[in-house]
Design brief:
The protein is an alpha+beta fold. The protein is 21% helix and 17% strand. The strands form two sheets. Strands 1-2-3-6-5 form a five-stranded mixed beta barrel. Strands 4-8 form a two-stranded antiparallel ribbon. The protein starts with a helix and ends in a 47-residue tail after the last helix.
Length: 239
């Protein structure tokens, strides 16, 4: 009987005890301030050696001052007193316009036929030839031309045109080196009535000789033979 009551007593005791709830409270402590970490210290960069690549720049030709005495090739003759030349030693191969110094020539399209004669004379004399260009005082005129004395071998072409009566002297200071020589040559041409100091040239028609054509005909004749028969009756009788 004690065994049956004991379990009941335990259950009743357990049921009689009721635990009380204790309210939960959060703990709020003082706010901690954490120290800010310092940035890491990096080692200084080291210089990396760079290998130098050998390179030689291509030289760029530069314009040199115009020489006062130089050889040149005459590339074109646009007028009796004007040349287009390429100078010896010019790296740029530039074409320069040269004005024959100390002379005036009649224009080739002017009223005087001597202009055409002067142009053709200079063209035939200088075109494609190597000449020597000599400066007086002016390097370049206002039109960009080079006033020069032009020598073909030992012949001063400017002076030669005056002697031939195809040009007359025309000097402007300070380029007056040969003024006296040019004036003397012009006076001699005027007294002799040569070129522009004489009569106008007349056109001469050039007649080409006509070709003579010789035709040789060979005629072969074939003889024609005609046979003619003549029959004469002969009477034969007995006496």
């Amino acid at each position: 009987m004690l065994l049956s009551v004991f379990p009941i007593f335990i259950l009743i005791g357990c049921a009689a005890v009721t635990p009380t709830a204790t309210p939960f409270q959060l703990y709020q402590g003082p706010t901690a301030i954490l120290p800010t970490p310092a940035p890491p210290t990096l080692p200084p960069p080291t210089n990396t050696p760079v290998m130098a690549v050998p390179w030689t720049p291509t030289p760029i030709p530069t314009a040199t001052p115009l020489p006062s005495d130089v050889l040149a090739l005459v590339a074109n003759v646009p007028a009796a007193d004007t040349l287009e030349v390429v100078m010896q030693g010019d790296l740029l191969n530039q074409v320069y316009t040269v004005r024959l110094l100390g002379i005036t020539v009649p224009p080739k399209n002017g009223a005087s036929a001597w202009g055409v004669v002067a142009f053709r004379t200079v063209r035939d004399m200088l075109n494609g030839k190597v000449v020597r260009l000599v400066q007086d005082s002016t390097v370049q005129n206002a039109d960009g031309e080079l006033p020069r004395y032009v020598y073909l071998s030992e012949t001063l072409v400017n002076l030669e045109l005056v002697k031939m009566g195809l040009a007359e002297p025309s000097f402007t200071a300070p380029d007056t080196k040969f003024q006296a020589r040019f004036t003397s040559a012009a006076n001699a041409a005027r007294e002799a009535g040569i070129g522009i100091w004489g009569a106008e040239p007349t056109a001469t028609a050039a007649i080409a000789p006509s070709a003579t054509i010789t035709v040789t005909a060979t005629v072969t004749a074939t003889p024609s033979i005609t046979a003619t028969a003549s029959i004469t009756p002969t009477a034969t009788g007995e006496p």
